[in-house]
Design brief:
With 152 residues, the protein is of the alpha+beta class. Helix content is 26%, strand content 32%. The chain has 4 helices and 7 strands, in the order βααβββαβαββ. The protein has a 7-stranded mixed sheet with strand order 1-2-3-4-5-7-6.
Length: 152
């Protein structure tokens, strides 16, 4: 499968939730991101969270979750809490393509700014976000790097 396959974002629902939870990461990446099960539990308890399944054609390849505007106190800000591409599909450009789709979706929902956090040791995330226009703004209280991007 290539990144040319039609990439789409779909709601996480009862029909795909178990498959989303089962998406595998490489063992070395497990310290960099919360499990999809934890993320879906968080989404279930916070109405402002929007969990999204990432599909290439009909194949589930990843998961993302963001908070709607206002969760940071600014009405134009979305927070991207999760972005993961399952291990078998990494290194093929899907993360970059999914991030572009997510930014477009957030923009269409009123975001003028997107904030995200990642573990500083996650070099692949740092590179992806920097190449996608995110600017690091410093460490948060949990030691995660915060980065932001203005949307036009």
């Amino acid at each position: 499968m290539t990144v040319n396959a039609a990439l789409t974002l779909r709601p996480v629902c009862t029909a795909n939730a178990e498959a989303v939870i089962g998406l595998p990461l490489h063992a070395a990446q497990r310290d960099f991101i919360a499990s999809n099960a934890e993320s879906l539990a968080l989404a279930a308890s916070h109405a402002n969270m929007d969990p999204r399944a990432i599909y290439a054609g009909d194949e589930l390849i990843g998961f993302a979750m963001y908070a709607l505007p206002g969760s940071t106190g600014r009405q134009d800000t979305h927070v991207l809490y999760r972005l993961m591409i399952a291990a078998p599909w990494q290194g093929q450009g899907f993360a970059r393509a999914a991030l572009a789709l997510l930014l477009d979706e957030m923009r269409s929902r009123g975001a003028g700014r997107v904030v995200l956090y990642y573990v500083p040791a996650n070099a692949r995330a740092r590179q992806l976000y920097a190449q996608s226009g995110f600017v690091e703004t410093g460490l948060d209280g949990d030691g995660e790097m915060m980065a932001e991007r203005l949307l036009s």
